[in-house]
Each structure stands twice: as C-alpha cells, then as structure tokens.
C-alpha cells in the first residue's frame, strides 16, 4: 500500500500542479500539494504501522486520500481530464482494497470535501485542458492503472494459493499426513460412480490397531500418537498412488483400492500386517503391534458410500471377533 500511495500521489502531483499553475493559485496551494505528494505517504504508512488495528487505520488513510482528491478537484476548478481520472482512480482503488463499503465512504469524503471547497471558491469551472495538463495526466492513467492491475493480480494469485492450501487442510487428518473421512468419502463416491459406468473390481480395507487403548494406557498418549504416525507411513508405503489411505478417527484407518480384486487386496493387507509386526516405535517398549483388517469389494449395484464402508467395517468386526491379528474378507 505504501508503494502504491507513493506512486499514486507522485503521478497525481504533475497534472494537478499543471492546472494550479494555469489557474495561478497561491503558493500555499502548491506547498500543500507537495506535502500531499511527498510527505503524506510516509505519514499514512507510520500511522498504520503504529496503530493497534493497522487495517482499520489504513482504511481511514484511504478515505483521507479520497477527501484530498476532492480538495484538488475543487482547486483545479473541475478541470475535466485530471478531475475525472483522479476521481475514477480513487474510487476503483478503494473498491479493490475494501469493497463497496470502503468505496462508498471514499465517495462521500471526496464529494463532501469537494463541495465545501468548490462552493467556498465560488464554484469555478476550468473547462480548457491544455496540452501540458493532458501530457502530465497520461502517466497517471497508464502507469497507475497498470500497477493497480499487477497488484490486484498478485493478490488474486495469493488468495488462490491460500484457498487451495485451506482446501487441502480441510481434507487431511490433522495429526497424520493422510486423508481424512471427508476426502475418503469423496473418493469412494467417485469410485462407485466410475464402477457404475465401467464395471471392475475395487476393494475397501478397514484397519484397526489391536489393543491400542493398552498402548496409550501403558506408554502414554505420545507413544500412542507415534504408533499412529508409524502405521499411517506403512499404509503409504504399502499402497499405490491411485489408492487412498485415510484415517477415520482414533486408531481406525481405511484404504480405498481402485481396480483391486479381493485377492490382491488381501496381499496388500498381508504386506501391511508384516510391516506393522516389525516396526520399531513400540518394540523398544516390548510391545508387538498387530492389526485387524477387514476387506470388502464393491458389489454390483452398490452406490452408497455408507453401504460399502459398513461392509468393510463388518469384515473388520469378524476379524476382531475371530481373535484379532488377522485379515477377514467379505
Ligand atoms: N494416542 C492417541 N490415542 C487416540 C487418539 N484417538 C483415539 N485414541 C484412543 O484410541 C483408543 C481406541 O481404542 P479402541 O479401538 O476402542 O480399543 P482397542 O484398545 O484398540 O481395542 P480393539 O480395537 O478391540 O483391539 C481409545 O483409548 C482412544 O482414547 C489419538 O489421536 N491419539
């Protein structure tokens, strides 16, 4: 904002100066214009920087800018070219900085200061735009508009990046670098839609760490968390890029395996169990980590996310019921 204000007041200085000289305005007018062009940007910057609420003060500064614009338009006796350009720039700039609310405040400030000064001066009109004033106004039109577009574009790019990042965070588990239920359900729905048009074999795997409560109770929550991280890493390593490992909550994980028949899913589950059995997180505490895994393949005509998840959860329940540390396929 500081640089944009310096650029704006500098580019406004020349056309306004040109008209003020043509109208033979007194010296104090020229000095006031110089102060507005060369001192005000720094004063505005310091005011905002020292403020408790910098954004609020910057919005005030932007309204003051508009008021100053009204003053100069009146002192230029409404010379059409610089007056229209300055008013347009002031209002569009405020619109992009603070929306319609800020633009309305700026328009009111501009109009109020203009009317007071213009009436006090006897409502003068200077309709003649000299060549010098025209050439002095051109850089304001060209350079400032270009700078404003560059600034608006860079803000839009930053916002796009931020919004993508927020979207990613909303789809990921906060503790593990793994999808959460929201993303998983989206992918499952996508897979079911795909299977409806292109029949194939896809599987869903429900994984639960056996006796996880005991890990927390015996070794503490931190070790429990470390175990969850280790298991999620194993799920990443054991799966393909097209699979979606996700955490449903607690010690429950699910993997969506597109284009994977039940036997292949079983082989993946075996790999996961083998890796969990030899992992080191809890081994040093003399605890052997085992998993129970339930697998359910998508059935023809299945089009409900909950139905497929429930089938895999039922399979997991069977694995637990049969004594844990095993794989059960529906
Ligand atoms: N460390 C840690 N623990 C969690 C987290 N979320 C849930 N838990 C705990 O995970 C445990 C889940 O236990 P259960 O799945 O109900 O039981 P379990 O001991 O695994 O028993 P089985 O599933 O029958 O083998 C509970 O004690 C929860 O408090 C977490 O983010 N970190």
UniProtKB/TrEMBL annotation:
Coiled-coil regions, chain positions: none
Co-factor(s): Mg(2+)
Transmembrane stretches, start-end: 6-23, 30-48, 68-90, 102-121, 141-161
Residue ranges annotated for the GGDEF domain, each copy included: 200-330
InterPro entries in the record: Diguanylate_Cyclase, GGDEF_dom, MASE2, Nucleotide_cyclase, Rev_trsase/Diguanyl_cyclase
Catalysed conversion reaction: 2 GTP = 3',3'-c-di-GMP + 2 diphosphate
Keywords, sorted A to Z: GTP-binding, Membrane, Nucleotide-binding, Transmembrane, Transmembrane helix
UniProt KW Cell inner membrane keyword: no
EC numbers for this chain: 2.7.7.65
Pathway(s) per entry: Purine metabolism; 3',5'-cyclic di-GMP biosynthesis
Protein name: diguanylate cyclase
Organism encoding this protein: Kosakonia oryzae
Species lineage: Bacteria, Pseudomonadati, Pseudomonadota, Gammaproteobacteria, Enterobacterales
């Amino acid at each position: 904002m500081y640089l944009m204000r310096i650029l704006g007041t500098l580019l406004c200085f020349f056309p306004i100066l040109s008209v003020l000289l043509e109208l033979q305005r007194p010296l104090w007018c020229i000095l006031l214009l110089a102060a507005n062009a060369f001192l005000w940007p720094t004063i505005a910057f310091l005011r905002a920087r020292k403020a408790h609420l910098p954004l609020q003060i910057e919005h005030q500064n932007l309204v003051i800018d508009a008021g100053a614009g009204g003053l100069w338009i009146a002192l230029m006796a409404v010379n059409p070219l610089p007056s229209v350009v300055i008013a347009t720039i002031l209002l569009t700039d405020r619109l992009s900085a603070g929306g319609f609310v800020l633009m309305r405040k700026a328009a009111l400030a501009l109009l109020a200061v203009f009317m007071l000064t213009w009436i006090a001066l006897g409502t003068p009109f200077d309709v003649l735009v000299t060549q010098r004033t025209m050439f002095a106004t051109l850089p304001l039109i060209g350079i400032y508009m270009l700078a404003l577009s560059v600034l608006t574009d860079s803000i839009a790019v930053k916002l796009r990046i931020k919004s993508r990042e927020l979207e990613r965070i909303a789809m990921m588990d906060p503790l593990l670098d793994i999808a959460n239920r929201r993303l998983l359900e989206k992918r499952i729905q996508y897979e079911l839609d795909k299977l409806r048009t292109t029949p194939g074999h896809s599987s869903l795997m429900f994984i639960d760490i056996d006796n996880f409560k005991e890990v927390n109770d015996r070794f503490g929550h931190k070790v429990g968390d470390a175990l969850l991280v280790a298991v999620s890493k194993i799920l990443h390593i054991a799966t393909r890029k097209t699979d979606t490992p996700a955490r449903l909550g607690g010690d429950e994980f699910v993997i969506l395996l597109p284009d994977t028949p039940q036997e292949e899913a079983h082989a993946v589950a075996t790999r996961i169990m083998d890796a969990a059995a030899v992992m080191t997180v809890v081994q040093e505490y003399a605890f052997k980590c085992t998993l129970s895994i339930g697998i359910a393949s998508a059935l023809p005509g299945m089009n409900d996310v909950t139905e497929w998840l429930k089938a895999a959860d039922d399979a997991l329940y069977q694995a637990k019921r049969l004594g844990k540390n095993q794989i059960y396929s529906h």
